[in-house]
Design brief:
This protein has helices at 47-99, 162-209, 224-229, 232-281, 288-319, 329-346, 365-381, 408-412, 434-445, and strands spanning 2-6, 12-15, 32-37, 111-116, 132-138, 141-150, 153-159, 326-328, 350-355, 360-362, 387-392, 396-401, 448-454, 458-464. The protein has 465 residues and is α+β, with helices and mostly antiparallel strands. The longest helix is centred in the first third of the chain and has 53 residues, at 47-99. The radius of gyration is 44 Å and the shape is elongated. The relative contact order is 0.10.
Length: 465
């Protein structure tokens, strides 16, 4: 069960079903819509999903850091260290060359040197290499070439970096990859342990989600198995929930007993009032002013009697499950319109009933009479010299009046107990309980009630069963 407030453009907001009121209208301006239906609130993602997202983010961050580390390692080993080594090799050669021009050139498995004297030609393919570092293909393999000059002579150092790349892989990339795999494995173990630690909490949440808190006779939570298998924190939560539901059941029971007992106790003085009015009305010689006063007293006693019967019926309905009784909506609407016809005519209103379908409702007749009667009474009471259209269709019933209407704020509070709009306080009888009682019954039976209204134009109420 949820309650919504909507503007005419269809923009709606929702509140949880267990709220006792219809909420505050979200619309601004002169028109608004409020509705109460059986849709549930949106559910956010759970702890397990959040933990999984955190694990995925950790893996991504660690993976990115490792890739960057591998790239930097390769750059340092293959580029910076190689360049530094070739620079030092060239400086060392030229230092020795200045002392002894016959200094032998470097010639190792990975490094080969070529000396090009003034006017001479360098090795084939390297004749026009500029001074400094470059990478080029030489003798069928990719080489790092370092060219330096001294007194017109050129020193060409050709370095085979393949073995350095192998060393960078075996002593840099491979160890980092192994460390990355170990970190992933440890994170996965930590993730599984975290899931195991949160599992009792998740099971508790799913168990609570399956509980029907609106069931008659109170809420019964059987969480003993979770208390035994869970941690101390879970046991504390379960104890708190058990204490809360116990107090909640006790409060509901007190409310139901009070409503029932108060209703029964108040029946006696109401019966006394009715009997006294019967005796007073037998005297035909009373002046018109006294007869008018007696008529007002009769209407007030009738309203009180109806309210007491409604409260007693609600106390029974919330204490007992539905008995499967089926009632004709067409018949109830016809009877309630006949009962309100005198009030409608006194206010100059015309009530028109249209039956597009034969609709049966799974509810006791008295319950349906309360819902239909209160909606119709509101339309008649807040309309003067107007029209009330009642249409029964396959989904339920729609009541449209041409009365005073309501603002968005008034419409948002219309289903609250004892609330009466400012425009309704100036002479319209009632206690502000009609729609609150309707809303309570609608929640109990999982029905839907929606209202749309414009000040000065009227109100439309949709009932879906």
């Amino acid at each position: 069960m949820a309650t919504r407030a909507c503007s005419d453009d269809g923009d709606c907001s929702s509140w949880p079903a267990r709220s006792s009121s219809a909420g505050t209208a979200a619309a601004s301006g002169l028109s608004a819509t409020t509705c109460s239906n059986s849709g549930g609130p949106r559910v956010n993602r759970g702890l397990r999903a959040r933990l999984g997202r955190l694990f995925a983010v950790q893996l991504a961050v660690i993976g990115a850091a490792t890739v960057i580390g591998i790239y930097i390692t390769q750059l340092v080993v293959e580029d910076l260290l190689t360049r530094q080594a070739l620079d030092l090799e060239a400086v060392h050669f030229w230092t020795n060359y200045d002392v002894d021009p016959n200094t032998p050139l470097p010639d190792t498995a990975n490094l080969r040197g070529y000396l090009v004297r003034p006017g001479g030609r360098g090795p084939t393919g390297l004749e026009h290499m500029a001074t400094g570092f470059s990478r080029t293909d030489f003798e069928g393999r990719s080489r790092v070439v370092h060219v330096s000059e001294n007194a017109g002579a050129r020193l060409v150092l050709v370095f085979d970096s393949a073995q350095v790349s192998d060393l960078a892989f075996y002593f840099g990339i491979l160890p980092l990859s192994i460390v990355l795999l170990l970190i992933y494995a440890l994170l996965f173990v930590a993730y599984r342990w975290s899931q195991a630690a949160l599992s009792p909490v998740i099971r508790l949440a799913r168990r609570l989600e399956a509980v029907d808190f609106m069931q008659p006779g109170g809420v019964r939570l059987d969480l003993a198995d979770l208390a035994q298998s869970g941690d101390a924190e879970v046991a504390t939560m379960i104890e708190a929930l058990a204490s809360f539901t116990s107090r909640l059941d006790a409060a509901i029971e007190r409310e139901r007993v009070f409503t029932r007992d108060a209703g029964h106790e108040l029946r006696t003085p109401v019966a006394v009032f009715k009997g006294s009015l019967d005796l007073l009305e037998r005297d035909r010689s009373r002046p018109p002013a006294d007869r008018d006063a007696l008529a007002r007293m009769r209407r007030t006693v009738a309203e009180m009697e109806s309210l007491l019967e409604t409260l007693l019926l609600l106390a029974r309905v919330e204490a007992e499950p539905a008995n499967g009784e089926v009632t004709s909506l067409n018949q109830v609407a016809t009877e309630e319109i006949d009962a309100l016809r005198a009030l409608a005519e006194a206010r100059g209103n015309r009530v028109q009933l249209t039956m597009d379908a034969d609709r049966d409702v799974s509810a006791p007749k008295q319950i349906l009479r309360i819902v239909v009667g209160n909606v119709l009474r509101n339309g008649v009471s807040f309309t003067r010299e107007g029209k009330i259209d009642v249409r029964i269709h396959a989904d339920g019933m729609t009541v449209t009046d041409t009365g005073i209407g309501m603002s968005s704020e008034e419409l948002g509070n219309a289903f609250e107990a004892f609330y009466r709009a400012d425009a309704a306080r100036g002479g319209t009888p009632g206690h502000g309980l009609g729609l609150a009682i309707v809303n309570r019954i609608v929640k109990r039976y999982g029905w839907t009630i929606r209202a749309r209204s414009r000040p000065g134009e009227g109100t439309t109420v949709d009932l879906e069963f």
